[in-house]
Write a structure and sequence with these properties.
single chain; alpha/beta; 388 residues; EC 1.1.1.290; Rossmann fold
Length: 388
């Protein structure tokens, strides 16, 4: 079996090596000729899997994308050609949720404002938005959710069953989020049509409606915000604080926007080692299921041990101390510094993504409560550990 895989997809050899011969490729520069006599194609979001790319794919039996979104995949074409496809929904949800939460802790520290006092509006309550909601709830914060598609689905399900669901989620409108939220975090897919399209969801008008001193975090797709309008508004409103992991026109962000952002990174919010491994593993499991292949491989066995085995908690953890713990797992400032000094270099954006191999999730750090203090909320945040 001939397998073509994106060069930046981790653990492919460890998982797929016994199934076939693996060829690594540059996902942005993949050509139709490279798919001749190929059985399996493994991609990320930078590869457009469309009719042009598959024009010479004469043996393709499986396409997998180690991503949550599928806007880079022509699903109708794959169905028409009877080529099985799978993506990896939720693979990096925890990583994105923790990234956004850590960014908020960093902003709170920078501007000397208690994070816990703020209202957070989450736009998009799917896998990544829910992961952030989980972090914020664990920390005891007020959260507003906006997701008209999920809200409609919930109402439809309730109507179909004629039963009131006590555990149903509460949603508000985007206008309510803009009016009430001190922090807005974006977690929607990119859609260009329909009543709930997200392309330029935050245009100049919406950006100007943000509360004074609001924080805006984008970890989904760059074009959810009109970046030109964002530059204009930010130049007029220094009170707005921005965290951008995604950019309109990737891999070439607008250079004039970067200096206006508090924390800037090259679309790596989901790039934890756990998230990367989980994405590749989900494709591997689906391929094995489709082709009836048995395996004994484990996701946990792929991950290296964390460099800190245990951390003892002896007293109540303050917000500043929580940020210190978070930085042990992932220091956002490091990536921000690298990004600002490399994004204008030739292929600098992609080079940084390719070489991003250091980040872990909260679960990598094990906490031991030796002071009999309240740490249950920290375990709910995602840290591993035990009570003593």
């Amino acid at each position: 079996m001939n397998i073509v895989a994106d060069e930046n997809m981790p653990y492919v050899e460890a998982l797929f090596g016994e199934i076939g011969e693996i060829t690594r490729v540059n996902g942005r520069q993949l050509t139709p000729e490279q798919l001749i006599d190929v059985d399996v194609l493994l991609v990320r979001s930078v590869t457009k899997v469309n009719a042009e790319l598959l024009s010479q794919a004469n043996k393709l039996k499986f396409v997998g994308s180690a991503t949550i979104g599928t806007d880079h995949i022509d699903l109708a074409l794959l169905e028409q050609r009877n080529i099985p496809f799978t993506n990896a929904p939720g693979c990096n949800a925890a990583a994105v949720g923790e990234f956004a939460f850590i960014a908020m802790l960093e902003l709170a520290k920078r501007f000397k404002q208690p994070l816990k006092d703020k209202v957070v509006g989450i736009v998009g309550a799917g896998n990544t938005g829910s992961a952030l909601e989980h972090c914020l709830n664990a920390y005891g914060m007020k959260v507003l959710l906006c997701d008209p598609l999920l809200e409609e689905q919930q109402l439809s399900n309730r109507s179909a069953t004629n039963i009131s669901d006590k555990n149903s989620r509460q949603f508000v409108s985007l206008d309510t989020i803009i009016e009430q939220a001190d922090i807005i975090s974006l977690h929607v897919p990119i859609t260009k049509t329909g009543p709930h399209k997200t392309w330029y969801l935050f245009d100049e008008a919406k950006l100007n409606q943000l509360k004074p001193h609001a924080w805006l975090v984008n970890c989904c797709r760059g074009e959810v915000i009109d970046n030109r309008a964002l530059i204009k508004v930010k130049q007029q409103r220094d009170d707005l604080k921005l965290v951008l992991d995604v950019w309109e026109g990737e891999p070439n962000p607008m250079p004039e926007l970067v200096p206006l952002v508090e924390f800037a990174t090259p679309h790596i919010a989901g790039y934890s080692l756990e998230g990367k491994a989980r994405g590749t593993y989900m494709l591997f499991e689906k391929l094995c299921e489709i082709f009836g292949l048995e395996h004994q491989k484990s996701l946990l066995n792929l991950l290296p041990k964390f460099n800190i085995s245990q951390l003892h908690i002896t007293d109540k953890v303050s917000e500043t101390q929580l940020l210190t713990l978070a930085r042990l797992v992932y220091n956002l400032a490091d990536d921000d510094y690298l990004f600002r000094n490399s994004f204008l270099n030739n292929h600098g954006f992609d080079h940084m993504r390719k070489n991003h191999t250091h980040r872990r999730e909260f679960s990598a750090l094990s906490l031991v409560n030796t002071g009999h203090c309240e740490v249950d909320w920290m375990f709910k945040l995602g840290f591993s550990g035990v009570e003593r």
